[in-house]
Amino acid sequence: MVFKGNRNRRYSRNFFLNNLFMKIGGQYTFTIGLAVFFAALIFGGVITYQNTDENDLLARGQRQVIEQKIEAARQTLETLVANHSSYQGHVELGKVYLDLGRDQKNESAYRKKAEYHFRKAAELKPRNLNNSSAEIASSKLAIVRHQYQEGEEQLLLTYKKLPNDRDLNKALYELYFDWGNHLEKKENYLDSMEKYEQALSYVNHYDSEKELKEKLIAVISKQAIQKEKEKKLDEAIVLLERSLRYQYDVDTLAKMAEMYERDNQTDKAIIWYRKAFDANPDEMSIKLARMLIAKGKSLLGENKGEEAEGFFEEADRVFKMANLPLKDIYPVELSEFNINIQNIDYETGTLLPVIHLKIQNKAHRPLNFLAARVTFLSDSGVINEVTEIVSSIDLPLGQEGKASLKSLTIKPDKRINVHAIKSQSLRVKVSIAYTQDDQAEWEVIGLKEIKIQSRNPTPETTPSGYSA
């Protein structure tokens, strides 16, 4: 009996434990299943929300456009307009189709889709909505079609209501910019200028403004060239001056000066050359100085010496400011260069060359100092060298046309040994210098060569190919 009782107790305990674990296992399985169900329900709700919520779809589509994921944006916005009557959704989708049409072969099909969505947006736009998106989108379509006046009317009508709308101002800039570009391609430069200038009224970005001004300057230049070809220099000058509003350019200043010069308006040419010189002394110094000298010479011809001197002095200052060499201020020409051989002594092997020179001042004013140097050379180097003062403060070399020519006869200070001329070829070099100091720069203006033949009293003289 005792044994039987113990067995019953064990059975009862095992039964209880088995039932307990079965209950726990069942509850666990039920709980896990329930959690999975709710997770799927929540996930499905999120997905459904993301695919049907208007604001979420619009924000996602706009973000994809910014990220240049145009095809993904198209799908998102198509979902949006399929589930909602969204004004902004149709606007954005129309823009997307315009973008897609730029890179696709079937551009017209995309353009039609864009037009459809812009039209839907216009139908859905609330009357009290202060938003220019639909008009801006329509203007983009007008630009693509080159229907600029239609787009302009739409935007300007809205601009009256929303003059401070940044997007609207940008759209007007883009409209006029594209309009000007279209006219420029047709070589209608005058109307193109007008549209570019209208675009400047609405631009609100530095880089865009810079690009626009470059386009405007280029088209003004094209119109000026056209007028120049038509011999209408006065109109060409007006156009170039107009371009200076947008960029103060040295090339434009110089071009205006050149046109005034060609039109024989020397005073105005000097004014504009001065402005060009101030902007770029290195490139404009010679042109300005040349005009100043021409004006000075003209005044001299009218017996206005004092007034002429003022222009000559300004020309000198221009040369010095630009660090130009004195030879550019006072050009000198070697107008005669002859070599005579005297007293050739074949017994002692010596000769005495005599050099006859004529040096002329080609400058606009007297030359207060000039030195000439004659150098006798052979293959081994310098044989002899003689320096002569051509002009000084007391005896200046006159300006062009007035005592500007001086004749010189120069001999070496001693007879030349023929044996020092190894190749029987004597070279004679003529140089000039504008200063009398250790830093004097000698410029070669003439070079000749003579052949010395043994027992021949009449040596042949030939030029070496160097000319003054």
Strand content: 15-25%
Gross CATH architecture of the domain at 331-463: Sandwich
Helical stretch tally: 16
At the third CATH level, what is the topology name of the domain at 331-463?
A: Immunoglobulin-like
Q: How many DSSP-defined strands?
A: 9
Broad shape: elongated
Biggest sheet: strands, sense, closure?
Answer: 5 strands, antiparallel
CATH class type of the domain at 331-463: Mainly Beta
Order of helices and strands: HHHHHHHHHHHHHHHHEEEEEEEEE
End-to-end separation:
151 Å
Structural class label:
alpha+beta
Indicate the percent of residues in helices: 55-70%
The average pLDDT value, as a whole number, equals: 82
**Order of strands in the sheet with the most strands?**
4-3-7-8-9
List low-pLDDT spans. Answer: 41-50, 456-468
CATH superfamily of the domain at 331-463: Immunoglobulins
Question: How much is the radius of gyration in Å?
Answer: 47 Å
Structure description:
The chain is α+β, with helices and mostly antiparallel strands and 468 residues long. The chain has helices spanning 2-52, 54-66, 70-83, 87-102, 107-124, 133-144, 148-161, 166-185, 189-200, 206-229, 233-243, 250-262, 266-279, 281-301, 305-321, 326-329; strands at 332-345, 350-361, 370-378, 381-391, 405-410, 416-417, 425-433, 443-451, 460-463. It has a domain at 331-463: Immunoglobulins (Immunoglobulin-like). A five-stranded antiparallel sheet has the order 4-3-7-8-9, with no helix packed on it.
